[in-house]
Amino acid sequence: MPLLRSLSDGLRSLFRKGRVEGELEEELNGFLEMAAEEKIKEGMSRSEALRAVRLERGSLEVTKEVVRSAGWESFMETLWQDLRFATRMLRKSPGFTAVAVLTLALGIGASTIIFSIFHAVLLTPLPYRDSSRMVVIYDREARATGLSKLMDLYQDFEAYRDESRSFDRLAGMTWIAGNPTLTGFGTSKEIHEVQATLGFFSLLGVPPALGRTFAAEDLSRGCTVVLAYPFWKNILGGQKRIIGNTIRLDDQACDVIGVMPDTFTFFPEDTQIWTLICPNNNLERDPRHSGLAIYAHLKAGVSISAATSELVLLHDRANEHDRHATETRPLVLPLHEELTWLAGPNLRLSLIVLFGAVSALLLVGCGNVANLLLTRSLSRHRELAIRSAIGSGMIRLLRQLLTEGLLLSLFAAGLGACLAAAVIHLFNITKPVELPSAAVVRINAPVLLFTASLSVLTTLFFGLVPAWKASKINLVEVLRANSQGTTQGIGKRRMARMLIVAEVMLSLVLLAGAGLLMESAARFASIPFGFAPDRIATMTISLPPKTYSLDLDRVRIYDQIFRGLDALPGVQTTAVSSLLPFRPIQGFDALEVERRQPSTPETAHYDSGVLSISPKYFSALGIPLLKGRSFKADDQLQTEPVAIVNEALAAKYFPADDPVGQHIRTFGAPPERNPWRRIVGVVTNEKRGNPFQEMSWLDTPAMFLPVSQMPPSRVTLLVRSNVDPMGLANIVQRQVSALDPSIPVSNIQTAEHLLLKEHLAYPRFRALVVGSFAGFALLLAVIGLYGVLSQLVTQRTNEIGLRMALGADAGSILTMIAGEGILLVSLGIGLGATLALFLSRFLAGLLYGVKPNDPMTLAGVSLLLLVAALVATLIPARRAMRVDPMVALRFE
Amino acid sequence: MADKPSDLVQGTLDMLILKTLALEPMHGYGIAVRLEQTSKGVFHLNAGSLFVAFQRLQRAGLIRSEWKATQNSRRAKYYVLTEQGRKRLNSETREWGRQVAAIARILEAS
Fold first, then answer.
1. Contact criterion met (CB < 8 Å) for B74 and A57
2. Which residues lie across from A690 on neighbouring strands?
3. Which 55-84 residues of chain A touch chain B by CB within 8 A?
4. A22 at the B interface (CB within 8 A)?
5. How many Å lie between the alpha carbon of A68 and the closest alpha carbon of chain B?
6. Which residue, A516, A628, A529, A595, is CA-closest to A860?
7. Segments of A566-674 assigned E as strands
8. Residue A227: pLDDT band by 50, 70, 90 thresholds?
9. How far apart are CA A202 and CA A154, in angstroms?
């Protein structure tokens, strides 16, 4: 209540100033009159009495001022006054204002952009119920030294679900099992399916937009699906009556029970349908060999480590007498962290680095504006001195100067926010990097709050020192001295030099970081892939499992499809693989070599991958054959089973012998599909990604089999051609449909797009962003240096003239000024290099082919900075050199 | 000897004004005179501190004001103690008593 009254009283004094003042004046007058009357009664004359009262009680005007300034509203009034004055001052020097506002707007805008991404990815809670307590449960290999994440066995899921006490809710899902074919809506389409357990949607706590999500009674039905909004809208036509009806997936009728809202998203982002895992599902039928990821909500008060220990017990009990118990361990991770990691293994680190870089840019900008203010305060000396002489205290002056600074910052923040909004808009359209699907980058209240606090913070950074220096005025000296050459300037000049050194230092750190990141991105992208990825289109063909259940049927249809393709105009080569280029080879198979000790479950090493390819695969991708031969058209189902291995496999399994001619097979597969295969060739390792690490290729041992001997039900077609990939895909689709309309052709893209999206996007984004920050910082530092040296020359014109009059030649004047600049820059570079060497170790995870302390990079950017600084130094130095002594000495 | 309210213990002036107003509504000068008389001239108040205190007390809701005629038929602003002000006066008087007693004990002990 008192607060409210104080507020309303204060507002009354602010807005009804005349009336409030009148009242106060009347009251005070009465007070003083009454006091005077007493004195008159005691025998004083009226004028004597009034004088005495003024002395005793204070004069009317002073008292009015005292009372007025006691309330909070007087603070506002002064602020308003200061703001009006500041606006006038800024308008009087538009050049200064424009440069300062633009510099700050650049820094604040860039900071706002980075913060909005930082906030969206790392600080915004996931859009699920009580998401801060949500975790993901994986297995990890007990022997693995690095990061290891495996899907959980379904039987472990059942054990955790039924017995664990650490979680309120627990659900599992897998995105590996299914890419079923949808029929009945245009051409056959491959659908991205996630199979989820009953509790999946209730765990996330997001209600559907239409219909309902999974319920217990659905377990006894055949196939129940919930649709993703875009799939429902774009592919099924967005009709509400689809709820309660069926769609056909892999020739099976599935009941549609609900549609999730447009805003709902979970991993994987491109999920189109969620199907319920029912008792007849392959996961339930084979719980020891099928995997899924488990998500759970930790009970209040249960820590991740406590939950992990409980899961270890359950895991060991469920897998008693099984190598799974000893080979794997449960791994519990916070869901938010995991989803960030899935979007980019280095996303968190990248964002932290970008944040640091933008802070350095902002500081360089602040340094420049501080220098501008210092320069300006020199020319405002007299004004400040006069204000001080007529009674403004140091605090009052300081406050007024800071208000001017704040006004600059506020303008800059406004402009910066507009700039940020435009760039974020562009960012959201072009999507240069993958972010977690739940992260929406936009300018919202927290981001605006951040921008506003930045404007206050920057005011303190750039404004406090100049304001403090300016407000500490030695009155007598200033008013006596003429406007030029004063000792006052010296302190400011020292300050200006320190600021320049700091700016050069920060710029060098930024340049070094940018240099390392750019070099990494360039080296990573220029690795020879053996082929030009931009001319290779990739697309997926999946065969409906019922029609093509036999190897023979699959071999025959593939044969027909491929033969048709090679005849197409513009097509140079076609090849087939069961795995997209650049995608990591999962080392989930164990291998056995004939005439060696047979493997047992205890000795088997699950370290290799098996791929099916067509004969032209290696030549199409330019992968060199090191030994032996490639597959041939007559390697068929009924001929001798053959295999080709990569270098990694040869090195691991045949370190001493020649692998060609040896016989191998996978361990543990059913014998009728797993004969001994003769190795006919060895190829070099392909460039395939590492799922656990950005910017690295992983050489997993791989065994290649001919598609004609091991035909998978889903293959990737690689077509090298000189026609547009989308047009090509349409032709392929038409050809395939002519053979069998139920076969979908999907995931059409170029190998280049795959490479860009999954491997080059982050390195290039980081290099681009840090590079542009470094560029701006360099520009600002150089402009700052130029400004300070110019100021120096102007201030010392007199002195230079005198020197020249006394016989100094132009060369020595040039050396004097340029020497000053070079000294400052060298000091900045020295300090910056030290700081860069210290900080660059944090970049180690983001680099490729270059060490964090790479001397060449550091030397290169130092040289760049030095050359830029030299240019900035020479312009004012030449001006100094041309000073005409006669003019200069008259310049008083 | 304290001759300026700034030498008064912080907040004491507010308490003294409240106490004065507890007897009857009074105008500014009346309060000043009353405080000087009752303190036998120990406190002498200048207008500035007095009126700042009025503004503060009024904003805290402890007193309110109204314009009335004085005995000399002059128009003056009279200050009236509110219910809230009376409560505050009671509690502050108690607290003051406790503190004075405590200080006295300390001073006597040495």
1. no
2. A693
3. 56-58, 62-63, 66-67, 70-71
4. no
5. 8
6. A516
7. 571-577, 589-593, 606-613, 625-628, 642-646, 663-666
8. very high
9. 19
CB contact under 8 A, B60 and A6: yes
Whether B77 contacts chain A with CB within 8 A: yes
Q: Which of A751, A750, A716, A743 is nearest to A578 (CA)?
A: A716
| Whole-number Å distance between alpha carbons of A770 and A111 | 12
Structure tokens at B3: 């001759």
- Calculate the alpha carbon distances from A711 to A36, A107, A706 in Å: 114, 57, 8
| Cβ–Cβ contact A11 with B under 8 A | no
- Decide if A768 touches B, using CB distance below 8 A: no
Contact A58 B59 (CB under 8 A): no
Position A481 scores a pLDDT of: 58
Is pLDDT of A663 > 80?
yes
- Do A459 and A405 contact (CB within 8 A), yes or no? yes
Those residues whose C-beta lies under 8 Å from the C-beta of residue B31, and which sit 6 or more positions away, are: B17, B20, B21, B50, B79
Best residue of A24, A34, A39 to probe chain B, by most B CBs closer than 10 Å: A34
Select from B51, B58, B75 the Cβ nearest to the Cβ of A63.
B51
- Chain B CB contacts of A9 under 8 Å are 55, 58-59
Interatomic CA distance for residues A353 and A118, integer angstroms: 11
**Looking at the partner chain, which of A2, A10, A34 has a beta carbon nearest the beta carbon of B29?**
A34
Higher pLDDT, A79 or A489: A79
Residue type, A417: A
- pLDDT grade for A170, boundaries at 50, 70 and 90: very high
Which token pair is B69? 């005629």
Closest chain A C-alpha to B101 CA, distance in angstroms: 31
A14 touches chain B (CB under 8 A): no
How sure is the predictor about A477, in pLDDT bands with cuts at 50, 70 and 90? low
B87 interface with A at CB cutoff 8 Å: no
Calculate how close chain B gets to A55, using CA atoms only, in Å: 9
What mean pLDDT comes out for the span A183-192? 88
Instruction: Say if residue B3's pLDDT is above 50.
Output: no
- pLDDT-derived band at A209, boundaries 50, 70, 90: very high
**Pairwise CB contact (< 8 Å): B51 & A33:** no
Q: What is the pLDDT of residue A486?
A: 47
Is the distance from CB of A292 to CB of A283 less than 8 angstroms? Answer: yes
The one-character DSSP state at A380 is: T
Pick from A578, A592, A615: nearest CA to A706: A615
If one compares A432 and A726, the residue with the highest pLDDT of the two is A432
Question: Are A166 and A306 within 8 A, CB to CB?
Answer: yes
What is the identity of the amino acid at A53? V
CA distances to A61, A195, A323, A338, A438 from A343, rounded to whole Å, are: 69, 21, 32, 9, 10
Contact of A727 with chain B, judged by CB distance below 8 Å, is answered with no
Phi, psi (rounded to 5 degrees) for A390:
-90, 20
ipTM (interface pTM): 0.84
Local structure of residue A667 (DSSP, 8 states): S
Least confident window among A66-75, A333-342, A683-692, A875-884: A66-75
Q: What value does the mean pLDDT of chain A take? A: 87
Nearest partner of A608 among A659, A654, A661, A645, judged by Cα: A645
Instruction: Give A150's DSSP letter.
Output: B
* Cβ–Cβ pairs < 8 A, chains A and B: 69
Ranges A87-91, A202-206, A533-537, A593-597: which has the least confidence: A533-537
% of chain A beyond a pLDDT of 90? 45
To the nearest whole Å, the CA of A30 is away from the closest chain B CA by 7
Q: Is B28 near chain A, with CB under 8 Å? A: yes
